[in-house]
Amino acid sequence: MQQRSPVQIAQLYGSVASALVGGVVAAYAVAESRVDDFTFSDDGLTSVVITPQWAGATAAVVAAVGVALLHRWGRGGLASVFAAVGALVIALPAFVPVSASISVTLNAMGAGIFLAAAAYPTKSHRAAQIALALGVTATTLYFGAADLWRDRVPRWSLTLPGDSYPAPSTVPVWILLAATLLVGGVAAVARPNQEPGDIDTRLVILGVVLPLAFTALYVTLGSTSTSPGSWVTAVAIAVAVTVALAWRLSPHDGRFILAGLAVSTVSVSTTNFSSDWTWAIPAGAAALALGVVVGWKRPMPQLGLGLLGVTALSGLSDSSLTTVSYFVVLPLALGLAVTSCLPVAVGAVSSGAVLPFTLTLFSVSVTFLEPTAQDFGWSNGPLVEHGPVTVNTPIPLAVLAATATIVVAMVAIHLKRVRPAVVT
Prior knowledge:
Elements (H helix, E strand, L loop, with lengths): L5 H27 L13 H4 L2 H21 L3 H16 L8 H20 L6 H16 L31 H17 L11 H21 L6 H20 L3 H15 L4 E3 L7 H18 L3 H13 L6 H21 L5 H8 L1 H4 L31 E3 L3 H21 L8
Antiparallel strand pairs: 1-2
């Protein structure tokens, strides 16, 4: 057997590591940029650009455009520049004072650029695409685990006159430096099989239109003043728009977008990590790995989505069943669903993977439906830092809407008659 050269080894294994690290860093940066008082602001445009919805949408749009530019005119050298620029933008608050209201947009742009660079070498590389998609989705869904190793610095957009509260960098500079060397280095030697002009404009349109549509729905129907009726209306419109745009894509690309829609709905319930996490992380990692292995050997996207539906529906019980579902069943379903739907076009994997932080009607807007959501005050109760991992569940209506969305995605995939992904 002919021995592979160092460049070939870097292309084969480096793109997997680069995609995973790039996906994790980009998703972490978006999630960490959340402004603590975004629900208090009512200052017109400012109240929009500090929301998690704006951060996710901006990152998604920049990533979609960046992927298209790299594969239309770029080569590995330009992708390396993208990685460096994206990391520099994310790290900017570490060197220059930047207010929280401005840092949200800057950070999202940097995350989108960095994600595009990480996605560049994944063309026709199934393992790399799986790493990228799982890096983004798992980081977004289990972002609460970050509390185990870092004390989050508060981010405030509202300050006293003449006072300033600069926001810190969302990702430590040393991590960004290491990630840039990896992503940029792999991109520099990557030789994806992509001819100039070989870009599906439908994917670019979807990657830009969907985040903007979700943001418009959030502002008009899903913000702090939302009601159950307006929230359900926003969800219905968001699902309809996603299905309509995914339907226009090739069968495999459309299927992955619909899978991303289903994954985004399970964020309707949120996971909380504490000091007693010893079983949750190993169990979840093992379940995720099992899902990937099964999906790699025998793609079963419908089973993966079905398990996602079971996970979302478990929120009705608000018990230990919900905890087991979100820390064991969800990783299994995530690994199985994502792996079963790949490989696809690079634009599809980047736009589909970001849906969990682009569609915040489930992860953010649903919290405004709670009866006490608008009651604010101080508490002198003790801060509980010890205890088991938990799951916060929303009102039953939200759980049912999330489950119904997954069913719609499953039906749409079935009607598209997509054949199993080719194992490469």
